[in-house]
Amino acid sequence: MLDELLQRVRGYSPRIMETQEGFPEAAVLVPITRSDEPEVVLTLRASGLSTHGGEVAFPGGRRDPEDNDLIETALREAEEEIGLPPGLVEIVGPLGTLVSRHGIQVTPYVGVVPDFVDYQANDAEIAAVFNVPLAFFRDDPREVTHRIDYLGHSWYVPSYRYGEYKIWGLTAIMLVELVNLVYDAGIDMRRPPEHYIHLK
């Protein structure tokens, strides 16, 4: 399973989203465990943060001027936030670039990490580090759907519940792209799901 996953991500050409020039750049790491049943590593951001406080996210952040590229940004931020040494990460490839509601251009990078890592959450930024089986998202067990209007298009973004954690927004969009790529899940965010209620 993992080998096929890696092969698909390596051979993937992510979409290029139309963005305005001058958006600040950021990168996140999408860590996948090296195991027979791969899991994704996610964080719960500390509630006191000025942006995305209390939300589930992949480790990552804004590009520093000293970063040679966005991969370095993703690895540096993952080390700062959850104590993941860059040497333990095998970068596989990027997913599509997105723009956050704060006007930041975010590029996700899929990386393979060992099955067992003793993550050290940076208390100032991260409230928890947890794993979710990647296959959990394959059947699209969404709790609700959020409609996001962007560049003249409507996107129907799932919100997932895993235990005590709510996974939504950009993180959910990245996960949908990943499971569509890896599992041919066919989750279509351009159309509302059958149970979607249009409120007037």
From TrEMBL:
Pfam families, per the entry: NUDIX (PF00293)
Keyword Iron-sulfur: no
Domain Nudix hydrolase: 23-157
Gene3D superfamilies: Nucleoside Triphosphate Pyrophosphohydrolase (3.90.79.10)
Coiled-coil blocks: none
GO molecular function: coenzyme A diphosphatase activity; metal ion binding
Protein name as catalogued: NUDIX domain-containing protein
